[in-house]
Amino acid sequence: MHPMEPVELRGDLVAIEPLGVEHAAGLLAAADTEDVFAWLPYARPAGLDQARAWIDSALADRRADRRFPFAVLGAEDGSVIGSTSYWDFDAHNAHVEIGSTWLNRVSWGTGRNAEAKLLLMTHAFETLGLERVAFRTDILNQRSQRAIERLGATREGVHRHEMRRRDGSWRDSVHYSILRSEWPDARDRLGERITVARV
Questions:
Q1: Residue 106 banded pLDDT, cuts 50, 70, 90
Q2: Measured distance between the N- and C-terminal CA atoms of the chain, rounded to whole angstroms
Q3: Domain boundaries, the chain
Q4: Stretch 90-101: mean pLDDT
C-alpha cells in the first residue's frame, strides 16, 4: 500500500482521515488561537476562504506526490481538531516524514497528539513496512523538540537555513528519526503516555 492512497486510522482519542474541502469549516474552528501556528510556515486562517485555500495548497502537494495531508478528528464527536501529514514518501529507501502537525489549543496535553503519532507510525512501520520515520522542527521551537524527543526519536542534527520562516528569516531545522528496530520501544512509550494523559 502506498501512503498516498486514502487511509483512515482510528484510536480511542482521535481519528485520522484524508483531508478534503469538507473539512474547511472544522479546521477554521480548530484554529482557535494564534500560538497554535506560531512555528508553522503558514498563518492561522482568518476566515473560511483562507481555510479553503490552505486545503487547496495541501491537496496540490498531494497531487504532486509530495505529501498526504490528513484531518485529525476528536474520536468522541468527530469534530475537527487539527491536521497532520505524511511527507516525502520514499518507497525505495522505505522512509516517510510526519510533519505539518497542529492541534487546537484545548487538545494540548490530552494525549491526542501522542495517539495521532502512534496511529501514523503504526501504519508506517506495521502496514507499509517502512524502515524510518522522520520528524523535523524549527531550532527555536523548544516545545516541539521536547515533544518529538518524548516520542522516542533520535536527534540526528541540524540543517542550517533549511527554509524561510513567514517573517523571511532563515530557519535552521532540527531533524529526528525513529527506525524500525526502535519502534517497539517507542510504541510502548507512546502507549504509556496516552494512558497517563487520560487519567
A1: very high
A2: 36
A3: 9-198
A4: 95
CA distance 58 to 68: 8
Q: Which residues contact 152 (CB under 8 A, 6 or more apart)?
A: 178, 182, 185, 186, 189, 190
Report how far Cα 85 is from the mean position of its chain's Cα atoms: 5
The domain defined by 9-198 folds into Aminopeptidase (3.40.630)
Burial 153-181 (b: 16+ CB within 10 A, else e): beeeeeeeeeeeeeeeeebebbbbbbebe
Query: In this predicted model, what pLDDT tens digit does every residue of 29-48 receive, in sequence order?
Result: 999 888 888 888 888 888 99
CA distance linking residue 63 with residue 159, whole number of Å: 27
Grid cell listed for 160: 542550517
Q: What is the mean pLDDT of residues 189-198?
A: 83
Q: How far is CA 82 from the centre of its chain?
A: 9
Measuring CA to CA, how many Å separate 145 from each of 106, 134, 135? 20, 13, 10
In 3D space, the residue among 20, 21, 17, 22 whose CA is nearest the CA of residue 6 turns out to be 17
Cβ count near 21 (within 10 Å): 11
54 to each of 24, 37, 45, how far by Cα in Å? 9, 13, 8
Rounded to an integer, the average pLDDT of 50-71 is: 95
Separation between Cα atoms, residue 35 and residue 37, nearest integer Å: 5
